[in-house]
Design brief:
Blueprint: H1 3-35, H2 40-70, H3 79-86, H4 101-119, H5 127-160, H6 166-175
Helix pairs in contact: 1-2, 1-5, 2-3, 2-4, 2-5, 3-4, 4-5, 5-6
Length: 202
Amino acid sequence: MIARYKVLTERLRSELQPLEQIVERVEGALARSVQQPENEIYFIAAAALDLHGFYVGLEHLFEMIATEIDGGLPKSARWHRDLLEQMTLSIQEVRPAVISSQTRDALVEYLEFRHVVCNVYTSSLRSERLSELVQALRLTFELVQRDLLAFAEFLDNLAKADDFDETLWLKAAATNPAFDFLNDPEEDIYTLADGKPLQDEV
């Protein structure tokens, strides 16, 4: 058993509950901002900080995956965005994609908002924009949860293997939601008649 994979698996699963609690708190803060308009600024500030915490908490998990599995974090000045993009990559004989492109697209909104919260006063935030992010947060979390649980299952199997088995990787790739787009009819554009057979020289 590869111990570090087992530890990472448990971290991925255990961190989903705190992330869901953040979703519930943010939804509650937005609802109370409507019910108590005289205190709206306080609830908006609380929701903004929790939205920031949601992405930061998730990014820590991505950092662990990049460090433990991929061999390191991106080095560019825009490493936060590059790390998110890295999680959508399927790396041959290393791992399948961690998240789908659909999940990445949803998370980009929260990555950008995290930057806003870090650089402006919460009192300057637009309540309309924050409301949009809060309303989309539940679905975003469900996408994240689906993808991370699928990746945790891959790590479970990997932790039990003495050596990397290519069939394990192929099975994980075939069942990972990140590859669902390959089932679209428009992706089925090749047949066995396409291309030419390889003739290896002896």
